[in-house]
Amino acid sequence: MHFRCEKKDLVEGISTVQKAIQGKSTMQVLEGIYIETTSEGLILRGTDIDLSIETKVPATVVEDGTIVIDSKLFGEIVRKLPNSEVDVLTTENNTITVTCENSVFNLLFLNADDFPDLPEIGRESGVEIRESLLKNLITATNFAVALDEARPILMGVLFEVKNSVLNMVALDGYRLALRTENLDSVDDFSVVIPGKTLNEVNKILSDSTENVSISFNDNHIMFRIKDTKIVSRLLSGDFIKYESILPSDYRLSFTTSKAVLHDSIERASLMSKDGTSNLIKMNIDGGRMVITSNSQFGKVREELSITSKGEPIEIAFNSRYLIDVLKVIEEDEIMFEMTSSVSPCIIKNRIKDNCKYLVLPVRIAR
Amino acid sequence: MHFRCEKKDLVEGISTVQKAIQGKSTMQVLEGIYIETTSEGLILRGTDIDLSIETKVPATVVEDGTIVIDSKLFGEIVRKLPNSEVDVLTTENNTITVTCENSVFNLLFLNADDFPDLPEIGRESGVEIRESLLKNLITATNFAVALDEARPILMGVLFEVKNSVLNMVALDGYRLALRTENLDSVDDFSVVIPGKTLNEVNKILSDSTENVSISFNDNHIMFRIKDTKIVSRLLSGDFIKYESILPSDYRLSFTTSKAVLHDSIERASLMSKDGTSNLIKMNIDGGRMVITSNSQFGKVREELSITSKGEPIEIAFNSRYLIDVLKVIEEDEIMFEMTSSVSPCIIKNRIKDNCKYLVLPVRIAR
Fold it and tell me: Does B297 contact chain A (CB < 8 Å)?
């Protein structure tokens, strides 16, 4: 194998496929980057079996070939090369010679035959979404996936289309995030995508208005972002019937400034950091919300103006769950809906009806 | 006690004195910030006994008093307050009430009687140095102090004036850093300042041209930077006679570009990272330097143009020691002086004779 390419293109390709590569693997080949020459340049691929990322790098190919090269070492070397043309040539003894200006590296490579193929998806079902919108949808929901493995299906985000409406839903037993978006004439489907996959997809997505093409079969999903393919296994099993969890009614609703509420809760939570509960209390009555929290070190009281409708309520939350929602919800003015101090609370945009966040309150002794 | 001050002034004061406060201490009072009202505002102080930092914060004092308040919690709270006036008032049960706009915190405080006083320095000896110059002097030397406690005196930087020349010297048994500066008519003196102290002093120094006043007695040194006093204990004992370590002659000298050499060594050291020696070899012959390194994963060869005078040499180094020097040395063109593969190597500016770095080579089998 022999090719030449620009250092910056190679760095970009390596950074992309490294997102699928775990630091250490029991299979040495999985710690490597697969490099294949094609008529158009290079194909780079990284995988941890569950998640595979493949991308293209423009290159002048002198002689065809495929190798697998240690991802960490090769990545560090290429990043530190001068901004110039890089020449990569396989020589005897499973060695590649990497030359760039006055730097010459000789590195051992691994046999590419053992490297896993990219899972085949076919094109059974699919949908196209603008890159920037997909980024927004993932950010709005993925934070709420379960992190513990007690119920593996909850470690993923439900990605379903019903009557041309896309619903993305994540929940972990304490809170739920739902984001919806109208799509043009797409057939109904429903898959559950691992949260870890969406994290990596999100890092690769830009704010571009180009379309990402998403296709899947029973076991795998593929995101195609420009020259990059991300293939991940899907989670198997049925997702929770989330519609039945969302309350249909409420007895108190109020609107408030997202930024003011965020800062007040951040301050109040300083007093509840020591425990694991991050407990803060909210007292809502008419146009006023009072947030309090206390610990062995002292106490705090925050007062906010709100616009409310309904009965007064005293309710307690894990402040972290509220902060998580306030960080991703889009509008500056947001709306809360509550029924009692033990019923789920709903948070949504004041105007645009494209998301719903549910947070369970914490029961408090009176 | 009752005072009012601007949040940003209070944050600045807290950040300054926190540099002397360790996270956890066996004495609870040392985890706190001492606050005292004066006719001009507030005095804030933090200490870990070895190092104390005191600064002033402009404030309107309504009622005099002194308290000690938990540094971490108080710091976090004040940083998160709105950018507005902060009102601090002591109330019953050893509590302070911190009010800012619609936020009210009640925090326990500690009795200030147990808080250590700032050590008295008097003004036995002293010197004045421009802030930006002192910053430069510390950066140029402090990296070379010993980190292990085998010889405590080497954990500090020698700070001596001889015939109106200031010498700052640090060494750790493998390398030495010497930076000199002409001062106007200052009496001779010699003290050893803990490296840890200089680290914190460096963080507080700005690039201003104002003078820092430095004064000391047998046990302590005080840096006065605008409204801030930093007092540290000095290390006791005699410093190494460093002049006898510096070679007076050499058999090969060469000049090279600092940036090109830095990048070449950085790349070469990628191949030697696995061991603890970070071993790289240099082969210097005429106008050419070849740097090589190899490990189980492969090898690297870097070639540089240099301007040399003297006999060819093959010599090996711990790359980290060279990189440390290249990061702080001032000029873009630098000069090396070598005698043999087992003799100390000297690195200095090509033109300005105000620093000398010594690095011991690593003996290699041939």
Answer: yes
Per-residue model confidence as pLDDT tens digits over A159-174: 999 999 999 999 999 9
Return the CATH superfamily for domain A252-359: DNA Polymerase III, subunit A, domain 2 (3.10.150.10)
The residue of chain A nearest to residue B299, with distances taken between CA atoms, is: A106
**Mean per-residue pLDDT pooled into runs of 10, chain A (366 residues):** 98 98 90 96 97 98 97 97 97 95 96 94 84 97 95 96 95 96 88 97 94 94 96 96 95 97 96 77 96 91 96 96 97 97 97 97 82
Q: B208: distance to nearest CA of chain A, Å? A: 34
Block residue for tokens 């995988």: A47
User: Rounded mean pLDDT of chain B?
Assistant: 95
Which residues share a beta bridge with B194?
B156
Q: Which has more pLDDT, A104 or B126?
A: A104
| B275: exposed, middle or buried (Cβ count in 10 Å: 0-12, 13-18, 19+) | exposed
Q: Do B362 and B279 contact (CB within 8 A), yes or no?
A: yes
Judged by a CB distance cut-off of 8 A, whether residue B104 touches chain A is yes
Question: Whole-angstrom Cα distance, residue A110 to residue B71?
Answer: 54
Does residue B20 surpass a pLDDT of 70? Answer: yes
Determine whether B291 is exposed, middle or buried from the number of CB atoms within 10 Å of its CB (0-12, 13-18, 19+): buried
User: What's the pLDDT score for residue A317?
Assistant: 96
Query: What six digits make up the tokens of B41?
Result: 């505002």
| Contact state of A105 with B304 under an 8 Å Cβ cutoff | no
Q: Which residues 208-247 on chain B approach chain A with CB closer than 8 angstroms?
A: none
Q: How far is it, in rounded angstroms, from Cα B274 to Cα B339?
A: 29
Give the CATH fold of the B2-114 domain.
DNA Polymerase III; Chain A, domain 2 (3.10.150)
